[in-house]
Every structure is written in structure tokens, then in C-alpha cells.
Write a structure and sequence with these properties.
By secondary structure, the chain is an alpha/beta fold. It contains ten helices and 13 strands. The longest helix is centred in the last third of the chain and has 15 residues, at 267-281. The chain is globular and about 50 Å long. The structure holds alpha-D-ribofuranose.
Length: 304
Amino acid sequence: MKKCAVIGSINMDMVLSVPRFPAAGETLTGGNFQTVPGGKGANQAVALGRLGAPVRMAGRVGDDAFGRRYLDHFRQNGVDVRAVDAVAGTATGVADILVNAAGENCIVIAPGANGLCDLEWLDRALEATADCEIFLLQLEIPLDTVAEAVRRLRKMGKTILLDPAPAVPLPEDVLAAVDFLTPNETELKAVTAGLSEDAGIEERVRHLVGGSGRVVVHKRGADGAYIGTRDGIEHVPGFSVRAVDTTAAGDTFNAGLAAGLAMGWPLRDAVRLANAAGALAVTAYGAQEGMPSLEQAQALMARG
Ligand code: RIB
């Protein structure tokens, strides 16, 4: 099985359930509050670990209690932490998350040590992950670092999965260097911002694929995913589950896709695994609680 590396953010999530999102200036009484591990990069690494894929995290935490707790948590979930360092005098990234009764969320992030993943750090991170073959990146560490990482990984001949989340427009040469791009609806619009407002999903996916060998896997939540390749666009249906908290559904989807590719599965099967893993992730409260093992994801796939 191919070794995976995740280059990205590590956050401690402060999750508060609310009946609905408050309006500006309003004070609302919520319910359950928890401090749980999160961060788009770390979520992908932990989800890969749960799925049984060999995975190494490259990121930064603060030299604080959250950072120490996170390092233990990575180890307990099978994530290799040799490329994670603790930055002296800096706080671990945190995310304040409100989850409403429909399981939807609102997130505000204080990047902390994630914001210090600079180009000098990237040199060390790439060196410490040089033996990995599949790389997962997102956009929660500085964009310059992600862009440079993608360019250098391309030159190194690595397989690159970029989850363009949170949504921002990306440099054309970075898009061109990616093997798998996995936007949700908002992110799809952001990375095809040059197209007209009225452009539909298919037009946007086709535009991203262009004449390249790039694969676009457009995540659609409960509706599954659309795979865009040079050969056309194919819908892979999702799985129906009761959503409790949709936080990290996209992160878990990416991990499922990468795990499938790491095991050498055909693309459609890897996307089915991604759909199943993402679906199971939303059935529990918190970013990582519902992330499945490979057996649990396969059981859902077998039910159809
Ligand atoms: O994708 C979900 C993640 O986004 C949360 O865990 C939170 O930390 C934010 O980074």
C-alpha cells in the first residue's frame, strides 16, 4: 500500500451545539460544548489512519496543552508525527464551531501555529515526507506555502490531491500541477471564478479538467460526487445517513479517496469509499468522532 502524507492545518475545535445560528448582536443559549481535535489537514490524516492507510502528518502545533494533546491523539490514531513540530511561544490553532439542529456548521479559525507553516518550514516538511507517494493538501495554512508545495511535489513526481478548502481562487499553475482536485460546490465556484455566474456544475468541472489528465472529484455531500476526467463526467451516488454534525465530512471524503488510491483501487471504487467514509463521518458529533475504519466504510458500501 502506498504511503500517504498530509501537509496542512492542525486545530483544536471548540464545538457548541445551537438550536439555530444567532443573528448579529444576538445572544443565544446553546447546548452541548466540547473541545475536540480538528483542522482540515489533521482531520484528513486521522481519517486516513482510521482507514488503515500508512500516513504521516506535516504541520505545526503550539508548545501548549492543546499541541501536546494533539500529538498523543495522532499517535493513538496511527498517524506518524515525525514531521509535526511544536513552535515555542505560539498557540495551537483553534476553530470555534457552531453546529445547528440540522447538523450544519459555522466556523471561525484562529490559525496560531498553522500560520507559521512558511517556506522555510516547507523545506523541512518535504524532506521529512520524501518517502511518501500520495500527498494531501488543503488551504488552511498560508496559500504561498501550499502553492510552493504543489509545484515542488509535481517536480518530485508525487501524486497530489488538493482539497481547495476553505474556498479561495488559486493560481493557474497550481491548479495545473494537481492530479486530483476535490472541490465542494462553493469551492468549485471559487476555483472557476473566471466563468460566468450562471455556469453550471458540468461546465465548471469540464473547465477545470480542460485538456489535462487532471481528475476533478466534485463533492456533493449526500448526493455523492461527480468525477470529471478527459473522458467525461460520471456521477457516483452517495449514501443516505442521519446527519448529526457535517463538520469534516469533506476532509473524511478526501481521506477515503486517498486511501482507495493508496490501495490501488480503480478511481470509481475509491470515490465510493470516499462517499461512504464522508457519510459515516457526519453521523457523530465533532470532526473526527464518526470517522470510520475501512471495515465500517465497506459495510456501508455493501448495503448500497
Ligand atoms: O473541515 C472541518 C475543519 O475545519 C474543522 O475541524 C475546523 O478545525 C476547521 O478547520
